[in-house]
Amino acid sequence: MDKVIGIDLGTTNSCVVLYDGGVAHVIPNAEGSRTTPSIVAFTGDGQRLCGNIAKRQAVANATHTVFATKRMMGRKFKSPEVQRIQMTSPFKIAAADNGDAVVVVHGKRYTPPEIGAFVLRQLRESAQEYLDQPITDAVITVPAYFDDNQRQATRDAGRLAGLNVMRIINEPTAAALAYGVSTDSSGIIAVYDLGGGTFDISILEFSGGVFQVKATHGDTFLGGEDIDARLMDALIEGFRAETNIDLYQDPVALQRLKDASERAKIELSTVEETEISLPFLTADNSGPKHLRRVLTRTELEQLTQDLVDQTIVHCQDALNAANVTNADITDVLMVGGMTKMPLVFNAVANFFGRTPNRTVNPDEAVAVGAAIQGAILAGDVGEVVLLDVNPLSLGIETSGGVFTKLIPRNVTVPVSITETFTTSEDYQPLVNIHVLQGERPLASDNTSLARFELVGIPPALRGVPKIEVTFAIDANGILQVSARDLGTKREQQVRVRATSGLSEAAIERILAEAEQYTDADRMNVELAELRRRVAGLIYTTERSLAESSNYLTESELEQIRADLESARRATESADMNKIQNTLRDLEKSAFRITEVMYRDFT
Ligand code: ADP
Ligand code: MG
Question: How far apart are CA 384 and CA 189, in angstroms?
């Protein structure tokens, strides 16, 4: 059977892993990093950038750089989450015809699954290159609180990336697998996951290979980026006090500050003190201004203590909701890059009264677990049985607008439940099946997943017809609902999938487009690299020209200036051959200058 990769499609970073021969291989991206920023950017000349490249230019190209779209997956534009994102989002968010949230860049709309697919496609390509074989099968993780719409949307993202999504599993469950929670034992574990933009705390109960999410709490707007922002604000304030310059007005300086803040934060996880040095950060009449500051771990902790404290409040809420106490917890698993920060680690240790488990790299644990699940599905790992549970109750609307549950929450999947219903009026010719998800007693308070009609019911008094309704959830948490009139044997069914905002036809079209764009995407990356090289050479050539123009003849000078000019013009086009040719010419010019500079010494 083909290899099945595991993918953590994260809010901030994504990670892809292959579990093979009992070993988890974290697959590096083209730039050699083990995680890839979940960021997609669109440049002025129609290029699409993804991952590290997109992150590096994010602040300077803010309105066209799309990040953290995972928060919008499967959500309506009007939902409180999306409204909140919109308030602070530098890029544009709008409503699709069906009400779903979409992002708008350069006038083009992208659904969150499409943005997710750009990231997934890059991960898939890294995997193919690294493993030197085609990869299509994958297991993708989602937060435990994701509802059906959000899971469907994630699944769509996978399909758009050309992946066969074999299973969608919960992130905390994946983390538990990665930590080797053994399936023949039982216990209650807390999975503390602090990432770049979100915080999740899940209480899982496991026994006999079945994982139950007993409670999941958190904050979708609390993570490492908030910590970086605190540090950045402090740096900007300090700089203002010294120089009276407001760096908030300078996007390029902001980008450098943001990168430097994150770097300093990460360094302070292992050392007590670090130096932030940003030469030529900005300039005023008196000349260039540099930022230089020594930062200690204690200072960083003081700036961010309250943020870490907030996560602990959620931990208590989760324990309460799961109806357990600290003492019931058999293990605390650390997940998410931010848990490497000593302040976080200590806060968690303090709260749970035990040393948290950090034996698996926290920013890779979820992907490792997904890969283990993949290996199980591929038949490479035999002995583990992993079952997940249905996170929210599923049912139908019955007379009087009441929500009648068929599958309660926390039931182990796969599962199939059948119940018999009847009509509520005399001579009722059809029944309307309205499928909902949620915990509220009234249908209107829950999330509507689908509606369909079962027609042709023979004339009868109310209460006589027998309509059998079956809810079946497969191992991916995907729901299929069918209704059958036992009298006529007529049957109607829906597979709940149309809610992620993409119709089957749209998915097919986007898939075809995406196949077509793979090469184009790679070309775009190469083009961007090439342009950067030319820009660098232009810069150094101009500098050495300024230093050595006295030694050059008029015709040499003319030639070099012409080469500089045509290189500059070539980079404005997207013609790689042309750029490459001008690069070669410019290199010759650069060599000529160097030769001239040393001519007198030979
Ligand atoms: P997500 O699950 O949100 O996609 P991750 O789990 O990859 O994100 O966590 C990313 C966050 O972790 C970022 O804010 C990053 O700066 C932070 N991070 C990564 N490594 C470290 C470290 N060694 N110390 C502190 N923070 C770190
Ligand atoms: Mg994560």
Answer: 18
